Amino acid sequence: MDATATRTLKITTPSDLEFAMSREFDAPRRLVFEAMTTPEHVRRWLGSAEYPITTCEIDLRVGGGYRYVFRRPDGSEMTLLGTFTEVIRPDRVAFVERMIMRGFTSDEYRVTSTFAENDGKTTLTTTVRHNSKENRDGHLYSGVEKGVEPAYDRIAELVATMK
């Protein structure tokens, strides 16, 4: 499967266990990296009006972790927890992540984001690797692009103000 989710976000499936999301930003990679890894910036782009972020904690180092808590429309919470396995500023960050919400906790999956700069523009590629095709497909077909694309649009707006 190779699908373009929108005019800006491209989603592909490089293997039976992975899906990858790519987007170009009109900013140097150090700014895109900072926008994606600094709590004060993450609070500005992660979440949505329907699922606002209420907690954003990041300890950006190998072995450090993060915790993002979102309030769902019914008032319950959804949490993303992760542990950093690689941090190479501003080139790459990798972590294992799992999602927790009432009645569901996902298996861990590995996320690797690379930041490639060319002529002042940055291509962000985030690859999500699951332990089974079934888990990958469940995540991929859950509507992930509906959350990622507007979040990436907000990152694009944010990095434009950081220049």
What are the defining features of this structure?
163 residues, alpha+beta, 4 helices, 26% helix, globular
Give the ordered list of helices and strands: EEEHHEEEEEEEHH
- What is the C-alpha radius of gyration, as a whole number of Å? 15 Å
Major pleated sheet: 10 strands, antiparallel
**End-to-end distance, in Å?**
36 Å
Beta-strand content: 35-45%
Please state the average pLDDT score. 92
Contiguous low-pLDDT stretches (5 residues minimum) are 1-6
Q: So how many helices?
A: 4
Q: What's the β-strand tally?
A: 10
Shape: globular
Helix percent reads 25-40%
The secondary structure category is alpha+beta
Description of the structure:
Helix content is 26%, strand content 45%. It has four helices and ten strands; from the N terminus they run βββααβββββββαα. Strands 1, 2, 3, 4, 5, 6, 7, 8, 9 and 10 form a ten-stranded antiparallel sheet that branches. β5 and β6 form a beta hairpin. α1 crosses α2 and α1 packs across α4. The radius of gyration is 15 Å and the shape is globular.
Q: Topology, please?
A:
Layout: E1 2-4, E2 10-15, E3 18-25, H1 29-37, H2 39-45, E4 53-58, E5 65-71, E6 77-88, E7 92-101, E8 104-105, E9 109-118, E10 121-129, H3 133-140, H4 144-162
Antiparallel strand pairs: 1-2, 2-3, 3-10, 4-5, 5-6, 6-7, 7-8, 7-9, 9-10
